[in-house]
């Protein structure tokens, strides 16, 4: 909630108070260095991408508060992320044009170019979504292999039985529902604050991962997420958590098998998908409000297995997300690396709490 609130402060510093600013999306939130001691924290950020349309990208970081007069050390940066904020006309609620960023240094140009690259990547990913394209050949082969393994588990003529560490996807589901109270509304109207919604989805995702693993999971990251529809005060919010993917997976390609430590590995990455919708109490109409994908690490060897076509599509979508994380980390790009490199050169423009 604090990060979303700071994003709003930074956005208004850029646009002024004449517009309404809302959270449109959250880019990947990554834990760089876990907090290992009780200390003061410094939250800081700046606008890194704005082209003169209605949206802007705000990059944030959480770090151990440095001593007076000193700069934040790289090893003290705990978490990095980026928010996409959109400015609306207070009366019509339609997007309004805001001022573009004025680029003055080479470092600012690099940050701006990275923001533009991220924006283009989001548009490209939308074109390859499973709602628009079928799974590719490799993904289809993996789906078929899992289906065959599922048949083996139920074939009385085969001695192979489902191991205890394999759990069917529909058995991992956790759900919650709650009425939206006015104390969680944003500053402009009777819509719920986006940071509160993120908090609720995280808590359910954590509980889902804990229920699945029978252990205390460690948060790793939140994938890019978009707020599809606002959540009004007085409405009912429904959240559904599902373990969508485990890494290493139950069935893997040749490349994944080479990366995997193999049998006997004691850790698993669990990706939990949160589907959210809001229902109007008076009219009974339900609208999707967003999808959120959290990744946790647990000290157990666990696998999730889909059984229906819809579950297989959830599994494929989660697998693609995991592969993009691996590709970005090996390529050395991403918000985390950018913010570490640019902190010292851009402190004059950062807003700090």
What this model shows, in words?
With 353 residues, the chain is an alpha+beta fold. 31% of the residues lie in helices and 28% in strands. The chain contains seven helices and 14 strands. The strands form two sheets. It has a six-stranded antiparallel beta barrel. A two-stranded parallel ribbon has the order 6-13. It is globular and about 70 Å long. The two termini are 14 Å apart. The model is unreliable at 332-348 (pLDDT under 50).
- Oligomeric organization of the protein chains: single chain
Stretches where pLDDT falls below 50 for ≥5 residues? 332-348
| Helical fraction | 25-40%
Order of helices and strands: HEEEEEHHEEHEEEHEEEHHE
Largest sheet: 6 strands, antiparallel, barrel
Number of helices: 7
Topology (elements, then pairings):
Layout: H1 2-15, E1 20-26, E2 29-31, E3 41-49, E4 55-64, E5 77-88, H2 106-127, H3 137-154, E6 166-168, E7 174-179, H4 194-213, E8 218-222, E9 225-227, E10 236-247, H5 254-259, E11 268-279, E12 286-298, E13 303-305, H6 309-331, H7 335-342, E14 351-352
Parallel strand pairs: 6-13
Antiparallel strand pairs: 1-5, 1-9, 2-5, 2-8, 3-4, 3-14, 4-5, 7-10, 8-12, 9-12, 10-11, 11-12
């Amino acid at each position: 909630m604090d990060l979303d609130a700071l994003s709003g402060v930074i956005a208004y510093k850029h646009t002024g108070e004449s517009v309404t600013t809302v959270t449109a999306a959250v880019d990947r939130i990554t834990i760089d260095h876990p907090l290992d001691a009780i200390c003061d924290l410094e939250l800081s950020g700046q606008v890194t991408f704005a082209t003169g349309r209605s949206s802007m990208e705000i990059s944030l970081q959480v770090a151990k508060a440095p001593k007076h007069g000193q700069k934040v050390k790289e090893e003290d940066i705990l978490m990095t992320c980026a928010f996409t904020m959109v400015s609306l006309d207070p009366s019509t609620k339609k997007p309004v044009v805001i001022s573009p960023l004025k680029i003055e240094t080479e470092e600012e140009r690099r940050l701006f170019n990275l923001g533009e690259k991220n924006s283009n990547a989001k548009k490209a990913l939308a074109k390859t979504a499973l709602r628009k394209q079928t799974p590719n050949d490799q993904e289809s082969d993996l789906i078929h292999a899992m289906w065959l393994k599922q048949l083996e588990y139920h074939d009385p003529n085969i001695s192979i039985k489902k191991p205890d560490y394999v759990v069917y996807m529909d058995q991992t589901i956790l759900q919650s529902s709650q009425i939206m109270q006015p104390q969680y509304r944003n500053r402009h109207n009777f819509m719920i604050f986006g940071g509160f919604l993120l908090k609720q989805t995280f808590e359910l995702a954590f509980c889902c991962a804990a229920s699945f693993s029978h252990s205390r999971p460690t948060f790793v990251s939140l994938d890019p997420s978009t707020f599809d529809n606002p959540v009004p005060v007085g409405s009912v919010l429904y959240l559904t958590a599902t373990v969508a993917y485990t890494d290493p997976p139950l069935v893997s390609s040749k490349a994944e098998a080479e990366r995997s430590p193999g049998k006997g590995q004691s850790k698993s990455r669990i990706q939990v998908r949160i589907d959210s919708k809001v229902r109007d109490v008076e009219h009974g109409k339900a609208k999707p409000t967003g999808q959120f994908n959290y990744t946790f690490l647990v000290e157990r060897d666990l696998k999730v297995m889909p059984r229906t076509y819809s579950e297989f599509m959830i599994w494929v979508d989660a697998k693609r997300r995991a592969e993009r994380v691996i590709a970005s980390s090996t390529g050395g790009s991403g918000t985390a690396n950018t913010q570490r490199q640019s902190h010292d050169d851009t402190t004059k423009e950062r807003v700090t709490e």
